[in-house]
Design a protein that fits this description.
388 residues, alpha+beta, 6-stranded mixed beta sheet, 11 helices, globular, binds 8-demethyl-8-dimethylamino-flavin-adenine-dinucleotide, RIFMO-like, FAD binding, flavoprotein
Length: 388
């Protein structure tokens, strides 16, 4: 097998890396645990920053996205039954978000990669890494038909998400791991319901946060802050809708939430995790394998795409000219953006949630009121939200 770069994981991070390397003529092999159908239909994120779309466009990867995605430049905060719109695009140079489901991003990246002759193995299991601190790391795995296969490569891209194997292959103590539990949980709900809004809604209610996110014209995502340790079993559909109606309600308004068939319900544990540095030897971690963030600022998929862009450019530089400065600087460059995003997401988490400590809840509300009143505060929000 001739691959120079072995990539574990075919999510947004792994597939972007694979596309950019393949485009530059660098052979890679992608190993994915799931089937093609699984990765192309798994709903998760749905918000892309302007910068990420620009990067995909530059590499010819955004054709369908540019045709189909909705652009968003405003969102709405609801507090005490009143709505406040924030036109973050106008506050930040006219840049907008693109609302496009993650599974469509994955489908497009995969389609492009295969159309250009890229190598990917689906349904692999038992991926093992060895020699990652040598010049020729080796990947082995069981193929879909159960044969043990092997790939010797020059570099490994660890893009297998938070629960993957690549990060776990780093010897204990060789990297530092930062973990933070935010002390809140969300019930995340996906429903076959047309959006009841043109703008994402973040609502702060005495019973906790509620969010109305956008996906496409027939499917919407909603979030409800729920007590720690809660289970989706406690949330029959009627209770979900009743709680959303209540927390999103507006005073003196005929605004209504449109219901639909609920297709996914799960409790999200709000956790942050960062690995420093994002490499060990010739293993480079990217995306969720290196860091996870709460979904509050919609940064996860964007960070994954940014890591892939930086790593591809570093590998291309090294493999073409022997210049290793990109690889040496990879982790620091990515982590600067990662920590910026973590700080912003923590700022939003604090602002939008009820804390068990009433004092902290009031501070959060004060932050939200300040955001609504203050040019500098809303400017901070706009810059970080739409993407630095
Ligand atoms: P992924 O997407 O998890 O892809 C990893 C891939 O690796 C495969 N894999 C393995 N393959 C081989 N061997 C193994 N041992 C393997 N272990 C795993 C998996 O099958 C998978 O295909 O990671 P990647 O590429 O780093 O992408 C990261 C994003 O998926 C993630 O950050 C976002 O989904 C986070 N996120 C959001 N991000 C945003 O930017 N905006 C959002 O609005 C947003 N909303 C969300 C989210 C994540 C959510 N969940 C479910 C965690 C909403 C939700 C509900």
């Amino acid at each position: 097998n001739e691959a120079v770069v072995g990539i574990v994981g075919a999510g947004p991070a792994g597939l972007t890396l694979a596309n950019l390397l393949h485009e530059a003529g660098i052979a890679c092999t992608v190993l994915e645990r799931g089937t093609r159908e699984y990765i192309e239909t798994r709903p998760r994120a749905g918000v892309l920053e302007h910068r990420a779309v620009q990067m995909l466009t530059e590499h010819g990867l955004a054709g369908r996205l540019l045709e189909e995605a909705d652009r968003h430049g405003a969102c709405e905060f609801r507090v005490n039954g009143e709505a406040f719109e924030v036109d973050y695009s106008a506050l930040y140079g006219g840049q907008t978000h693109y609302v496009y489901p993650q599974q469509d991003v994955v489908r497009d990246l995969l389609g492009n990669y295969l159309a250009r002759g890229g190598d990917i193995r689906f349904s692999v299991s038992d991926v093992e890494l060895s020699g990652i601190d040598s010049a020729s790391p080796v990947l082995t795995w069981l193929s879909a038909t159960g044969e043990r296969e092997r790939l010797e490569c020059a570099f490994v891209g660890g893009a297998d998400g938070f629960h993957g194997v690549t990060r776990k292959s780093i010897p204990q103590g060789a990297v530092q791991e930062f973990t933070h539990q935010h002390g809140i949980e969300w019930l995340s709900v996906l429903a076959e319901a047309p959006p009841s809004t043109h703008k994402v809604i973040y609502a702060l209610h005495p019973d906790g946060f509620a969010g109305h996110m956008l996906r496409n014209s027939t499917v919407s995502r909603y979030y409800l802050q729920v007590p720690i340790g809660d289970s989706p079993d406690n949330w029959p559909d009627e209770r979900v809708w009743a709680e959303l109606h209540k927390r999103l309600a507006l005073r003196d308004s005929d605004w209504r939430l449109t219901e639909g068939r609920i297709i996914e319900k799960r409790v999200l544990d709000m956790r942050s995790h960062v690995v420093e540095p994002m490499r060990f030897g010739r293993l480079y971690l990217l995306g969720d394998a290196a860091h996870i963030i709460t979904p509050v600022g919609a940064k996860g998929m964007n960070l994954a795409l940014h890591d892939a862009e930086v790593l591809a450019s570093a590998l291309i530089g090294y493999l073409r000219t022997g210049d290793d400065s990109g690889l040496e600087g990879y982790s620091e460059k990515c982590l600067r953006r990662v920590w910026r995003a973590q700080e912003f997401s923590q700022w939003m988490v604090f602002m939008l949630h009820r804390s068990p400590e009433p004092f902290l809840s009031r501070l959060g509300q004060a932050r939200l009121e300040h955001l609504i009143d203050s040019k500098s505060s809303v400017g901070y929000f706009a810059q970080n939200y739409v993407g630095p």
